[in-house]
Design goal:
- The complex is a heterodimer of chains A (95) and B (486).
- Chain A has helices at 5-14, 21-38, 73-76, and strands spanning 83-84, 87-88.
- Chain A is mainly alpha-helical and 95 residues long.
- Chain A has a two-stranded antiparallel ribbon with strand order 1-2.
- The longest helix of chain A has 18 residues, at 21-38.
- Chain B is of the alpha/beta class and 486 residues long.
- Chain B has a domain at 4-258 and 413-423 and 439-481: Amidase signature (AS) enzymes, CATH 3.90.1300.
- Chain B contains 15 helices and eleven strands.
- Chain B has helices at 9-17, 23-41, 49-64, 106-112, 156-163, 180-186, 220-230, 274-289, 306-321, 340-351, 354-367, 372-396, 419-424, 430-435, 463-476; strands spanning 44-47, 75-79, 117-122, 169-174, 189-192, 212-217, 260-262, 293-295, 399-403, 439-447, 450-457.
- Chain B has an eleven-stranded mixed β-sheet.
- In chain B, a hairpin with a 2-residue loop joins β10 and β11.
- In chain B, α9 packs across α11 (354-367).
- The two termini of chain B are 19 Å apart.
- Classes of the chains: A mainly alpha (95), B alpha/beta (486).
- Chains A and B meet through α1 and α2 of A and α9, α10, α11 and α12 of B.
Chain lengths: 95, 486
């Protein structure tokens, strides 16, 4: 299980994670090593075994549709790196 | 009488009620201790001394007016991944270095309902990813039993403040062992409750199907008192289970006659330190003297796959949870960028540390097209097999007993550049999160002056059985009373 530089760059792009040349080399080596060790998972016979997503057996947890107080805009925006009026300011999505 | 900052919750509470000490005195003793030992252990990211003294003065007024709650006026520390309104909550990450939450986590809100004294926020592995607290973006935390060694992680700071007498108790979180492993490494009591028992609302999410909040305390009686305050249903956490919450102190009878414990042999792993195995054997013998029956031939054969399954599932969930750090709503934000995506990529490149990035990459890979079935879904199916093995064991046993970790605390720097070696230090604790079970770590001995922890695992919602057994053990032993010389 060897992850190439191209694969590492592809995953980094999917994760929107900027990576330096040194990062790519390090990820390639470390992730390859980790995944190689995790190949043991493939030896387990899981045919007919359903996956477990979480361990409590709650399903379709619903809550009443009731109006409740929420945080005021100034508190919601208090940690925003860039804001304008009552909005988060973002860079242009379309060039 | 020991120093005020060394008291248990129940001892301090008695002195407060008898008006022998005040909460302000208790708080000043802790703050004094923090000033003295923090330069050596580095357990705290933020110390809230003014707030603590203000809360202590208010608690003293309430105590004078007849407040009898066991947590009133008792100084505590909260792991820095639980939101505290108006107090910086960093997750020990550059990404949240200046983040001040506008609301309290449910556990914090519940504690505040009992007028605690909050001394500060504890250091951790960044976003709770790690087993040594070396992955904090700020500084590593040191083990008070030997400051050249790690305290475990990710709740290393919370374990250390209890072990080094800086606080009376602390809250931690546990995704793969992050309460129990540092509790074992620092010789304190740490409980990971059943998944769904304690609300995670306001806990910064790491791996949502595994995360759980719990107490780190000086003994089991204190653990029960903190559980009474934090456990229970919360509609704001959709995985919170609407079971009634018992009074956890009622099970501390000391009578464990007739209980059946199993000792699964797979937990005495290859490479386990001989002194650790010997200490657990001795501890089980002590439990047998107290009237439990122990079976040494229990086998949970798929335990050997738990580590790999965990390190696929947890990073996968982390990669999704941490997608929210985009530099737009809060947190670190790279300003020098050419475009929206460039800004996001730079924000995440410079805001996250190496272990967090590694896990985001690993998780993104395991969830990506072409690999989802082979890795993520495979791991989730193995998760089912591991759960079923535990279910079958609990048909025969009231609890399972294992070491908390395969070794005593390791040296700072020893494993930090070797992710797989670091992951192995959770090998005894992470299967429990995979199955959503409750488990407690309690002090069970020392090897060359370094702590050894014993883990007791129960079926879902059997915290009372675990506390009962652990309490009986602490009545028969004094490992939990030993103090480090720091």
């Amino acid at each position: 299980m060897k992850l190439s530089r191209e694969e590492v760059l592809h995953i980094a792009r999917l994760a929107r994670l900027g990576a330096s040349e040194a990062d790519v080399d390090r990820f390639s080596e470390q992730l390859s090593n980790i995944l190689e060790n995790f190949e043991v998972l493939q030896e387990v016979d899981t045919s007919g075994v359903p996956p477990t997503a979480q361990s409590v057996n709650l399903q379709n947890v619903l809550s009443a549709d009731e109006v409740a107080p929420s945080l005021p805009p100034d508190q919601v925006l208090a940690n925003a790196p860039r804001k304008e009026g009552n909005f988060f300011r973002v860079r242009a999505v379309l060039e | 009488m020991s120093n005020l900052n060394q008291l248990t919750i129940h001892e301090a509470h008695r002195l407060l009620r008898e008006k022998q000490v005040s909460s302000v005195e208790l708080t000043k003793a802790c703050l004094e201790r923090i000033r003295k030992v923090e330069p050596e252990v580095h357990a705290l990211v933020t110390v809230t001394d003014e707030l603590a003294l203000e809360q202590a003065r208010k608690a003293d007024e309430l105590l004078a007016a007849g407040d009898t709650h066991p947590l009133t006026g008792i100084p505590a520390v909260i792991k820095d991944n639980m939101c505290t309104r108006g107090i910086r909550t960093t997750c020990s990450s550059k990404m949240l270095e200046n983040f001040v939450p506008p609301y309290d986590a449910t556990v914090v809100e519940k504690l505040k309902g009992h007028n605690p004294v909050i001394l500060g926020k504890s250091n951790m592995d960044e976003f709770a990813m790690g087993s040594s607290t070396e992955h904090s973006a700020f500084f590593p935390t040191h083990n008070p039993w030997d400051v050249s060694r790690v305290p475990g992680g990710s709740s290393g700071g919370s374990a250390v403040v209890v072990a080094a007498d800086e606080a009376i108790y602390a809250l931690g979180s546990d995704t793969g062992g992050s309460i129990r492993q540092p509790a074992g490494f620092c010789s304190v009591t740490g409980l990971k409750p059943t998944y769904g028992r304690v609300s995670r609302y306001g806990l910064v999410a790491f791996a949502s199907s595994l995360d759980q909040i719990g107490p780190l305390t000086r003994d089991v009686a204190d653990c029960a008192l903190v559980m009474n305050a934090i456990a229970g249903y919360d509609s704001r956490d959709s995985t919170s289970v609407p079971h009634p919450t018992p009074d956890y102190t009622q099970c501390l009878t000391g009578d464990i006659k007739g209980l059946r414990i199993g000792v699964p042999k797979e937990y005495f792993v290859e490479g386990m330190q001989a002194e650790v195995a010997a200490a657990i054997r001795d501890a089980v013998a002590r439990l047998e003297e107290s009237g439990v029956s122990a079976d040494w031939e229990v086998s949970l054969p798929h335990t050997r796959y738990a580590l790999a399954a965990y390190y696929i599932i947890a990073p996968s969930e982390a990669s999704a949870n941490l997608a929210r750090y985009d530099g737009v709503k809060y947190g670190f934000s790279a300003q020098e960028a050419d475009s929206m995506f460039d800004a996001m990529e730079k924000t995440r490149q410079y805001g996250f540390g190496p272990e967090v990035k590694r896990r985001i990459m690993l998780g993104t890979y395991a969830l990506s097209a072409g690999y989802y079935d082979a890795w993520y879904l495979k791991a989730q199916r193995i998760r089912t097999i591991i759960r079923r093995e535990f279910d079958r064991a609990f048909e025969k046993f009231d609890a399972l007993v294992t070491p908390t970790s395969p070794t005593v605390p390791f040296k700072i720097g020893e494993k930090v550049d070797d992710p797989l070696q670091m992951y192995l230090s959770d090998v005894c604790t992470l299967p429990i999160n995979i199955a959503g079970l409750p488990a407690i770590s309690i002090p069970a001995g020392f090897a060359d002056g370094l702590p050894i922890g014993m883990q007791i695992i129960g079926k879902p919602f059997s915290e009372e059985t675990l506390l009962k057994i652990a309490h009986a053990f602490q009545q028969a032993t004094d490992w939990h009373k030993r103090r480090s010389s720091i």
